């Protein structure tokens, strides 16, 4: 399970995420959608431990992904650009 708890991020005094909370249970497929500049990529970068939040927590299997190297090897994310192969199914793309 992935839990995002009251996530906030501020850059140079501008709040770009303000109290974002959600959870994704095991086996669920989750789409995080919104307009450009809504904070989707920032949320994902914080979730992966690539960026520190101003406040809040992101837990994967009740552990902080940014602090757990072994857990990070089990997570895959596509940020911004389409990195999928047209000739492969969704599962084949994940396996590849």
Commentary on this structure:
With 96 residues, the protein is an alpha+beta fold. It is globular. Strands 2-1-3-4 form a 4-stranded antiparallel sheet, with helices on one face. The mean pLDDT is 86. The chain has helices at 40-47, 69-72, 90-95, and strands spanning 2-11, 14-24, 55-60, 63-64. It is built from 3 helices and 4 strands. It has one domain: Rossmann fold. The relative contact order is 0.20. Strand 3 and strand 4 form a beta hairpin.
Defining traits:
Rossmann fold, alpha+beta, 3 helices, 96 residues
In a few lines, what is going on in this structure?
With 96 residues, this protein is of the alpha+beta class. Helices cover 19% and strands 30% of the residues. The chain is built from 3 helices and 4 strands.
CATH architecture identity = 3-Layer(aba) Sandwich
Helix content: 10-25%
Shape: globular
Query: Quick one: CATH superfamily?
Result: P-loop containing nucleotide triphosphate hydrolases
How are the SSEs placed, and which strands pair?
Blueprint: E1 2-11, E2 14-24, H1 40-47, E3 55-60, E4 63-64, H2 69-72, H3 90-95
Antiparallel strand pairs: 1-2, 1-3, 3-4
């Amino acid at each position: 399970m992935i839990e995002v708890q009251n996530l906030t991020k501020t850059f140079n005094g501008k709040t770009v995420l303000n109290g974002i909370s959600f959870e994704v249970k095991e086996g669920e497929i989750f789409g995080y959608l919104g307009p450009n500049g809504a904070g989707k990529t920032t949320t994902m970068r914080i979730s992966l431990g690539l960026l520190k939040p101003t406040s809040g927590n992101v837990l994967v299997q009740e552990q902080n992904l940014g602090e757990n190297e072994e857990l990070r090897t089990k997570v895959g994310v596509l940020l911004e650009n389409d990195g999928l192969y047209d000739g492969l199914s969704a599962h084949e793309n994940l396996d590849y």
